[in-house]
Design a protein that fits this description.
mainly alpha; Cytochrome C Oxidase, Chain A; 7 strands; copper; 3-stranded antiparallel β-sheet; Cyt_c_oxase-like_su1_dom; 17 helices; two-stranded antiparallel sheet
Length: 580
């Protein structure tokens, strides 16, 4: 009956009562089933999110150790402790692991899997088995990638540019096949999220009440579904060229290497937004919660996510200003790249406006977001410089590009991810981490990151090429400062992983809603129940309506004998639109 009304977009009045959550739930999704097998075969979106969290943390640590190895090698202008070929393999694997195994899947796979269905008031995602299959595909792709490291490594750079990648030795074919498999994981996650958002929203949760984190995941899922197949086909063609000798990208075989660059960047630039747009959603959630204010410009933030997703498909050519493409094409791509700054600027303006005159509480999640503001702004502004053709020609393939990329990806996406992890950790595990250590780790990460990458802007503008094993003496001091910063950064991340693990075993049990948020995920016990809700939640307000009483956010359809206290019952004097 409910679905029939939903499809006709009718409104109705429903009987609701308050379901006030208990603070700590003894029987929860973590312990309702025991044993390794129960985890490996779970269909619970929350457990799958935890599986992703463990997997991605391992990938992040491997990629991080490789980054430290790169920085140590660059301590001196000549060889420091590894061979040049080993160095080439290190930066290639660092880039490939960080991008394909950590940055692209991190927010959707971990936080999206865990939080999205709860924010929608659903018991799970639309296709739980497909969700588990996505994780297994990710693990299969990761295993193949590790095999490629052991089977000779790769030295092509994470972009796999042809004709070098189609003719060099090593395990390029295995690595690209691993990326191909991981791509399917990304596509299936996108399909699952879009279907879940369209079909499984709770009564009353209309599009204008949808949490902005869900909007971010929605825009991301569109990019995943439309762009990822292009990458899959491209690297499949690279594999065919290597194995069968078919001339597609290699000029010696009659192919065109520029065609590869078009295919690759058609995916890889939108992929930047796969990484960063869900991070924008996290920022919106945290800003509103820790400012105790209704989000400023809800629709502007929501639609700007879709605008970024759309424009992101039109700017791939700005990676190819020096490839020999037509001057007119470069001018068009340059102009379109400037346009990306508009929806991004809209978000920044609205976030800062939300904080204005808010009751700001400087807890750890918000500290990460404040760090995000500074770092992502630097990344964005330096991106405008690179979108300017004349400047880009000078800075192309220098450390300036390396610094810009890391400011956007680590300064933007990773800071948002860390903020989200600290924000939702009490809901995931029912415990609170050490706040003092968390703030110290945030400080170390912020300082370490800037010490690492700010000198690289200077080096790049002075002509230091990226990926070089040797360099001239004048850049040594910059490289050494950068190396010191990378170790400060590494200590910050190790500290964070340490107190997170410590909190699981020895952390203080938390309450259901430690941040006082109005969002739906905080209106259920901590850790989350096995099926999220023992009732059907009803939304009568948006998740950022802090001027409304908390009781209004804990409503569900009236049902007797369910074991909850009916502290607030009766027919509400509002229409609850069942338009989902």
């Amino acid at each position: 009956m409910a679905s029939a009304e939903a499809s006709s977009n009718l409104s109705k009045k429903v009987q609701v009562q308050r379901y006030k959550p208990v603070d700590y739930l003894k029987e929860n999704y973590l312990n309702v089933q025991k044993g390794l097998w129960s985890w490996l075969t779970t269909l619970d979106h929350k457990r799958i999110g935890i599986l992703y969290l463990i997997s991605l943390t391992v990938a992040f640590l491997i990629g991080g150790v490789m980054a430290l190895g790169i920085r140590m090698e660059l301590w001196t202008p000549a060889q420091t402790f590894i061979e040049a070929d080993t160095y080439n393999q290190l930066f290639t694997l660092h880039g490939s692991i960080m991008i394909f195994l950590f940055l692209v899947p991190s927010v959707p796979a971990v936080l999206g899997n865990f939080i999205l269905p709860i924010q929608l008031g659903a018991k799970d995602v639309a296709f739980p088995r497909l969700n588990l299959m996505s994780w297994y595909l990710y693990m299969a792709g990761a295993a193949i990638s590790i095999y490629s490291i052991l089977a000779g490594g790769i030295d092509t750079g994470w972009t796999f540019y042809t004709p070098y990648s189609s003719s060099t030795g090593g395990a390029v074919t295995a690595m690209t096949f691993g990326v191909f498999i991981i791509g399917f994981s990304s596509i299936l996650t996108g399909v699952n999220f879009i279907t879940t958002i369209h079909k499984m929203r709770a009564p009353g949760l209309s599009w204008d009440k949808l949490p902005l984190f869900c909007w971010g995941l929605y825009a991301t899922s569109i990019i995943q579904i439309l762009a990822t197949p292009v990458l899959a086909i491209t690297i499949l063609l690279v594999g065919m060229e290597r194995i069968l000798g078919i001339g597609i990208f290699d000029p010696a075989l009659g192919g065109d290497p520029i065609l590869y660059q078009h295919f690759f960047w058609f995916y890889s630039h939108p992929a930047v937004y796969i990484m960063i747009v869900p991070g924008f959603g996290i920022v919106s959630e945290i800003i509103s919660t820790f400012s105790r204010k209704t989000i400023f410009g809800y629709w502007a933030i929501a639609l700007s996510s879709l605008a970024i997703a759309f424009i992101g498909f039109l700017v791939w050519g700005h990676h190819m200003f020096v490839s020999g493409q037509a001057s007119l094409a470069s001018m068009v791509f340059s102009f379109l790249t400037f346009l990306v700054g508009i929806p991004t600027g809209i978000k920044m303006f609205n976030w800062l406006s939300t904080m204005y005159k808010g009751s700001i509480k400087l807890d750890t999640p918000l500290l990460y977001i404040l760090g995000f503001f500074f770092l992502f702004t630097v990344g964005g502004l330096t991106g405008i410089a690179l979108a300017t053709i004349a400047i880009d020609v000078h800075l192309h393939d220098t450390y300036y590009v390396v610094a810009h990329f890391h400011f956007v990806m680590v300064g933007g996406m990773v800071m948002a991810f860390m903020g989200g992890l600290h924000y939702w950790w009490p809901k995931m595990f029912g415990v609170m981490y050490n706040q003092k250590l968390a703030k110290l780790a945030c400080f170390l990460i912020f300082v370490g990151f800037n010490v690492t990458f700010l000198p690289q802007f200077v080096m790049g503008s002075q002509g230091m090429p990226r990926r070089y094993f040797n360099y001239i003496d004048q850049f040594q001091s910059f490289h050494q400062i950068s190396t010191v910063g990378s170790f400060i950064l590494g200590i910050g991340f190790i500290l964070a992983i340490g107190y997170f693990i410590h909190s699981i075993y020895y952390g203080k049990k938390t309450v259901a809603n430690p941040w006082g948020s109005r969002a739906t995920e905080w209106q259920i016990p901590s850790p989350a129940p096995p099926h999220n809700f023992d009732y059907t939640p009803v939304m009568i307000h948006g998740p950022y309506d802090y001027h409304k009483p908390m009781a209004d956010f804990q409503l569900g359809l009236v049902q007797s004998g369910n074991g909850h206290d009916a502290e607030h019952s009766g027919e509400i004097d509002k229409k609850v639109e069942a338009d989902n």
